[in-house]
Amino acid sequence: MEVTAVVLYDGALAQYDVEIKEDGNCSAYLTNYKGNQRPPEQINLRKEGRSWVSDVSEKNLLDDLTYSIELKAKSLLERKRSSEHPAA
User: Fold this and answer.
1) CA 42 remoteness from chain centre
2) What is the predicted pLDDT for the residue at 23?
3) In what order do the strands lie in the sheet with 2-9?
4) For residue 59, what are the contacts with CB-CB under 8 A and spacing of at least 6?
5) Closest by alpha carbon to 4, among 39, 32, 46?
6) What letter does residue 30 receive in the DSSP assignment?
7) Contacts by 12-21, CB closer than 8 A, 24 or more apart
8) How far apart are alpha carbons 73 and 32 in whole angstroms?
9) Model's pTM, two decimal places?
10) d(CA 29, CA 11)
């Protein structure tokens, strides 16, 4: 599944296409940014319990990105984490 996440980074909007994989891992790819200091081009992240872990150290970016992902794909992420069958 793929969702689009838009976050504010250094005063400008950054748009990421986020691929949610079968194992619950996510890869976010920067697709649009018009600010001066570019955010990371690719971010790998996964949800562990109620927290997210990532390969970026910028907490505000991670918090905003994961919030946007959860708004759009919460039910899918919950199923991946709990291994429930979608028809259950």
Assistant:
1) 10
2) 82
3) 2-9, 12-20, 26-33, 42-48, 51-54
4) none
5) 32
6) E
7) 12/36, 14/39, 16/43, 16/65, 18/65, 18/69, 18/73, 20/69, 20/73, 20/76, 20/77, 20/80
8) 21
9) 0.80
10) 19
From CA 64, how far away is CA 67, in angstroms rounded?
Answer: 5
Which H or E run includes 71? helix 59-82
For 14-46, what is each residue's pLDDT tens digit? 999 999 988 879 999 999 999 999 999 999 999
Tens digits of residue pLDDT in 37-78: 999 999 999 988 888 999 999 999 999 999 999 888 766 556
d(Cα 73, Cα 34) in Å, to the nearest integer? 26
How many whole angstroms separate alpha carbon 10 and alpha carbon 19? 24
